[in-house]
């Protein structure tokens, strides 16, 4: 029995566990010599009953007393006509109950908990002589004087399950229906020397079919070699083992067999036999397999839903087409693929561009990009990608060729890359939106461990590609609209002119978030009277209407400034016009007049502020001043300012010595979601204050943006610096 039959995958029970038979009930097995009335073999479960303190062979009554066996009235086995005594006398016992009392206390080293657990257990005893149950091989004639006794546990306590006991009384054949085998390891190949009739009923093999042969005759085409190896290893170590494996009957039908094998030693410790107990557990295993398959299927469905939800969320948050495709590729690797590539076409019939790749091994990403250069992926070409781009159905290749020469015959360059990628399975599905094929999503697995794609995987890939298609199409529409809006906005911003005595630098940064652009603006206007007007503002909103309103507001400011009006009056007239013509809901604005230089080179600056962040003045001595005097409400926020209402915006005035620098900015530089606006303002002021004396306007703007520009713009930023010549 050193190579007893084995099969596909059910976990073997550890050798230290009790044999599991008849729905998992522990079975203790004894072998009795009928001539001497001695127990000559006890398996691990039987040894546990005696506390491992009885040395075999031992008289059956002594063994019963050592095990603490009593009848249901509490009398010891040696004091009654016990089932053990009957079997030892050659009388078969179909089934009798016995109780276990005080076994652990009689010289055992068991703990108190173990002693308490052993009290009052009910056992069902069945015994029969081997000579009366099946023929015995000539070379095993000694078995004719032997008998087997089997103990099955009925309940945890003596009085815990009387009804169960009555049921088992009506099923007295419970143990005789168990399949028993005995082998002789002293003979070559450890052959069977005895089997009982239940073995014949279980396997279809007769006594003459099997005696003298090894139990490997039960093996078949789906026998699990690892299970066989585990059993053989346990028997080489002379240790008991229980395992569930697939065996085959004589007619070729398969069944799941739960087999328990225990070694039999004689009084001198020599191995003389192996006793095997077999039980057909096919129904139980099938139920377990169906449950496992159902759980696996449910988990696979949940995983697919999680993948679809994650992909949708990630792609929705993407900033542009390339970002959306890159996010998709990173999500499907490694959850669905080892390699992923996304190819998009700019126009129907055009050549695709590989916009995103992802791989478990980063080196394979470069190989994927190289493959796109080497292969002709144009729509209608010979590749799977070309066919899908031309409108053919999704391509599923469950098993790719082993070599590149087979996959790309006559084309050595892509064949070499194919071999480097070690591909196993592939899917190419269309990235489609609004009835148009925008590109393809290619998913690949690699040898040796990559999965083999099937129809379920293809359905998931098609769903992913469909969601990607909508994201890509929306992102393209946004990019077109955003580019148009940004172009409009930039066209409305002035080209900063050269002005004698002033250094001027300006920057405009377009925010990345949102689906439109903003209404930030700046301006510098040389005036007819020799002064220079400077302005900065921000129309509320992030859309084309805000950009258009910004252009109108800038024009209004320029018109009133050209008339030579003071800063407060210019902003008042803007307020009247904005509210009267409903040009914009609200806007912030700062306007200042820089007067011509006096005899000392200093310039007077007069300004008014309608709710805009306070500009900064950096003096030639390194001092920093915030121009926050005389602030007034935003344009369009309150009833009209001006002569008709009697309310006029106040102005502030200051002298700026040569070398002074004015810095105007919008709130995109200081106001960011999730960050403290005061801290951002402090950072800006600290950055400006720390600049060295004599720094030019261009250098100041660059250093401010380097230190203060958000890593991710969520709003537009306008920046204007004016340095007064020394």
UniProtKB/TrEMBL annotation:
Keyword tRNA-binding annotated: no
Organism superkingdom: Bacteria
Domain PAS: 14-51, 192-238
Domain PAC: 239-293
Pfam family, one: PAS_8
PANTHER family xrefs: STAGE II SPORULATION PROTEIN E (PTHR43156:SF2), STAGE II SPORULATION PROTEIN E-RELATED (PTHR43156)
Protein name: SpoIIE family protein phosphatase
Organism: Pseudonocardia oceani
Lineage, opening ranks: Bacteria, Bacillati, Actinomycetota, Actinomycetes, Pseudonocardiales
């Amino acid at each position: 029995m050193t190579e007893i039959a084995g099969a596909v995958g059910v976990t073997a029970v550890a050798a230290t566990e009790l044999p599991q038979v008849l729905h998992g009930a522990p079975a203790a097995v004894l072998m009795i010599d009928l001539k001497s009335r001695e127990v000559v073999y006890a398996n691990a479960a039987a040894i546990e009953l005696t506390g491992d303190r009885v040395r075999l062979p031992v008289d059956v009554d002594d063994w019963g007393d050592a095990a603490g066996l009593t009848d249901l009235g509490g009398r010891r086995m040696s004091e009654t006509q016990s089932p053990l005594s009957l079997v030892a006398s050659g009388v078969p016992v179909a089934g009798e109950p016995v109780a276990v009392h005080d076994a652990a206390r009689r010289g055992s080293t068991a703990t108190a908990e173990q002693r308490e657990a052993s009290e009052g257990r009910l056992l069902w005893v069945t015994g029969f002589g081997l000579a009366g149950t099946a023929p015995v091989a000539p070379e095993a004639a000694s078995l004719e004087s032997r008998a087997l006794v089997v103990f099955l546990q009925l309940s945890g306590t003596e009085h815990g399950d009387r009804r169960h006991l009555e049921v088992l009384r009506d099923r007295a054949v419970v143990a005789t229906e168990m399949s028993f085998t005995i082998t002789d390891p002293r003979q070559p190949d450890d052959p069977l020397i005895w089997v009982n009739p239940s073995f014949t009923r279980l396997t279809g093999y007769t006594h003459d079919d099997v005696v003298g042969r090894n139990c490997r005759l039960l093996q078949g085409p789906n026998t699990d070699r690892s299970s066989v190896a585990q059993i053989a290893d346990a028997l080489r170590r002379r240790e008991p083992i229980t395992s569930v494996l697939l065996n085959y009957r004589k007619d070729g039908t398969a069944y799941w067999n739960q087999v328990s094998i225990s070694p039999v030693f004689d009084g001198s410790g020599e191995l003389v036999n192996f006793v095997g107990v077999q039980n057909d557990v096919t129904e139980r295993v099938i139920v377990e397999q169906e449950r496992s398959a159902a759980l696996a299927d449910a988990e696979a469905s949940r995983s697919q839903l999680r993948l679809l939800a994650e992909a949708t969320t990630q792609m929705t948050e993407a900033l542009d087409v390339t970002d959306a495709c890159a996010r998709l590729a990173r999500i499907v690797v490694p959850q669905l693929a080892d390699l992923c590539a996304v190819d998009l076409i700019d126009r129907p019939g055009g050549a695709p561009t590989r916009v995103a790749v992802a791989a478990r091994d980063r080196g394979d990403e470069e190989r994927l990009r190289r493959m796109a250069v080497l292969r002709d992926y144009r729509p209608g070409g010979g590749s799977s990608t070309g066919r899908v781009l031309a409108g053919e159905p999704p391509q599923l290749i469950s098993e790719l060729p082993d070599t590149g020469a087979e996959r790309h015959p006559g084309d050595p360059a892509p064949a070499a890359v194919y071999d480097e990628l070690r591909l196993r399975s592939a899917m190419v599905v269309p990235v489609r939106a609004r009835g148009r094929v925008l590109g393809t999503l290619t998913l690949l697995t690699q040898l040796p461990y990559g999965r083999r794609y099937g129809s379920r995987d293809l359905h998931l890939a098609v769903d992913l590609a469909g969601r990607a298609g909508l994201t890509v199409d929306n992102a393209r529409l946004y990019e077109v609209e955003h580019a148009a809006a940004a172009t409009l906005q930039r066209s409305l911003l002035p080209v900063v002119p050269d002005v004698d005595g002033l250094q001027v630098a300006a920057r405009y940064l377009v925010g990345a978030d949102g689906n439109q652009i903003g209404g930030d603006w700046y301006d510098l206007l040389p005036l007819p009277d020799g002064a220079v007007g400077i302005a900065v503002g921000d129309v509320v909103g992030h859309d084309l209407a805000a950009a258009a309103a910004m252009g109108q507001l800038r024009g209004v400011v320029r018109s009133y400034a050209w008339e030579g009006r003071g800063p407060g009056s210019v902003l008042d007239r803007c307020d009247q016009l904005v509210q009267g013509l409903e040009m914009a809901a609200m806007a912030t604005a700062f306007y200042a007049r820089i007067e011509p230089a006096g005899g000392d080179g200093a310039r007077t600056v007069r300004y008014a502020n309608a709710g805009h962040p306070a500009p900064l003045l950096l003096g030639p001595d390194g001092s920093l001043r915030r121009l926050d005097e005389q602030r007034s409400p935003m344009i369009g926020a309150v009833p009209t300012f001006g002569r008709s209402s009697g309310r006029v915006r106040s102005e502030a005035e200051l002298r700026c010595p040569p070398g002074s620098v004015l810095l105007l900015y919008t709130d995109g530089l200081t106001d960011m979601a999730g960050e403290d606006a005061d801290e951002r303002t402090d950072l800006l002021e600290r950055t400006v204050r720390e600049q060295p004396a004599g720094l030019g306007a261009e250098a100041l703007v660059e250093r401010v943006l380097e230190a203060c520009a958000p890593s991710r713009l969520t709003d537009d930023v306008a920046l204007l610096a004016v340095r007064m010549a020394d």
